[in-house]
Amino acid sequence: MQLKPFTFHSPQSLNEVLDLVNKLQDKKILAGGTFLLNNLRLLKKRGIKTPQNIISLRKVEKLHGISLEKNKLIIKAMTTLCELCESPDLKHNFQILKIVAKGIATTPIRNMATIGGNLTCRYAWTEMPTVMIALEATMHFIDETGKEESILAEQFFKNGAKSNKLFSHVSIPLQKQANLTYQRISKQSPVDIPLLAICAKSQNASKHFSLTRIAVNSGVNFAQRDFILEEFLNKSKLSKSIDEEALNHLDNKIYDARSDEYKQHMFKICIKNAIRELAL
Amino acid sequence: MKITLHINKKNYEVECAGHETLIEVLRDTLGFTGTKNSCNEGECGSCTIIVNGKSVLSCMMLACDCEGLEITTIEGLAQEDELHPIQESFLDKGAVQCGFCTPGMVMATKALLDKNPKPNKNDIESALDGNLCRCTGYKKIIEAVEDASKKIE
Q1: Chain B 88-127, CB below 8 Å of chain A: which residues?
Q2: Strand order, beta sheet including A138-142
Q3: What ipTM does the predicted assembly reach?
Q4: pLDDT tens, residue by residue, B84-124
Q5: What is the mean pLDDT of the segment spanning B7-17?
Q6: Which residues lie below 8 Å from residue A210, measured CB to CB, with a gap of 6+?
Q7: What is the pairing mode between strands B10-15 and B2-7?
Q8: A267 near A218, Cβ under 8 Å?
Q9: Is residue B38 within 8 Å of B29, Cβ to Cβ?
Q10: How many Å apart are CA A150 and CA B68, to the nearest integer?
Q11: How is the beta sheet containing B2-7 ordered, strand by strand?
């Protein structure tokens, strides 16, 4: 058999999930399975202990669905990337989610992978965190007592994407005036992991950048904002040379300094492309 | 644990362990060996089946997590002696060499054409982006999908 033995649990409701989470010591949550199953195989191959219990969220209705409520987009944890792409609610600033989700992995993976998994798996290279930070999203969790807690996505990833609570949904404010772009570079490899991904948002008023947010994921740390670049852009006019000028105003600490010269050059191209698109 | 899987429009009661993947149960327990097992990492697509109308990778699913889902494997396409138009097209267009990727390719194609009966080349390449072929160079496969879409139309 491919995996080491474990007990499989298939709760039908959120309360049942919370009961199991409280009761079981050694457990992992199963969402779409595209990370967990490979993880379990790898642990087996390396002779490392695997969890005794797997709790599937598939049958928990409350964790499925996308909706627009009071100017906020609500995406529940078990929404697949494919469902995100197909949602008719992704208009205005939410359209960037469709653009990004469509580029992740392959069609069958997108049919299985969930937004919850992409945000909480703790792999630093996943792409949705960057977008959520740019969109000023809030992540919502449920603790073992059923109490809901919220945290800004930016803060969640700054804290290392750690939580011992159950992720239930993400909420994203509607911002009709926002202008967004997403750029990434990757190398050819069996798994299409971006070397750098950047999601930039701005409201371009009177030919100036305004309320600019630059979220970057260079695979080194979790997605975070480049505050130095944001500050520069928010003081700048939209111009043809702004993309080139912006390269002198990067928070170099957050980009992967271990990369060779060519990769670092490509990072700058990626950032330039993002700013150029933002300035359009 | 005892579970019931709905495969190719029939119910199958199966005794399986919680940690058995769907492909293991399909092939080793139920004898649906048309679905192939290759990379075991969700990269090659040879294990592609259709679940609730969407192409998915059976090596990345737990069998016990599939109760209540509508599962279609390659064995569910042909009707007795009559091949499905997609299968016919793959043969007619020379899109099969070693044949190992073919069940996965056919299932991805079925999922595509059920949703989008008139796909363009980009749609086809996108729908099959999870299926690798080491033999054909993909050109014949794309032609087979285009041919199948005309047949089904």
Answers
A1: 108, 126-127
A2: A66-69, A72-76, A166-173, A138-142, A148-152
A3: 0.97
A4: 999 999 999 999 999 999 999 999 999 999 999 999 999 99
A5: 97
A6: A202, A203, A204, A234
A7: antiparallel
A8: yes
A9: no
A10: 33
A11: B10-15, B2-7, B70-72, B48-51, B54-57
Q: Measured between beta carbons, which residues in chain A are less than 8 angstroms from residue B132?
A: none
Separation in Å, CA of A87 to nearest CA in chain B: 15
CA distance A109 to A199: 22
**CB spacing of A37 vs B48 below 8 angstroms:** no
Strands A27-30 and A53-56: parallel
Does residue A225 sit in helix, strand or coil?
A: strand
- Taking the C-alpha atoms of residue B88 and residue B93, their distance in angstroms, rounded to an integer, is 8
Whether the CB of B45 is below 8 Å from some CB of chain A: the reply is: yes
Token readout for A132 is 């959520």
Residue of A nearest to B28 (CA): A1
Say if the Cβ atoms of A191 and B43 lie within 8 Å: yes
State whether residue A74 is helix, strand or coil.
strand
CB A30 within 8 A of CB B65: yes
Which pair of tokens denotes residue A62? 């409350």
pTM above 0.90, yes or no: yes
Residue B7 backbone dihedrals phi, psi, to 5 degrees: -125, 130
- CA-nearest of B88, B4, B107 to A108 is B107
Distance of residue B48 Cα from the nearest chain A Cα, in angstroms: 8
**pLDDT band for position A190 (cuts 50, 70, 90):** low
Asked if A33 and B65 come within 8 Å (Cβ–Cβ), the reply is yes
Do residues A166 and A21 lie in contact, with contact meaning Cβ atoms separated by under 8 Å? yes
- Chain A hits for B24, CB-CB cut-off 8 Å, are 1-2
Among B19, B23, B61, B71, the strongest candidate for a mutation testing the A interface, having the largest count of A CBs within 10 A, is B19
Both structure tokens of A10: 């298939």
* Pairing, β B2-7 against β B70-72: parallel
Looking at chain A, how many residues does it have?
280
For strand B48-51 and strand B10-15, is the pairing parallel, antiparallel, or unpaired? unpaired
Name the closest residue on chain B to residue A82, using Cα atoms: B54
Under 8 Å CB-to-CB from A22, ≥6 apart: which residues?
A144
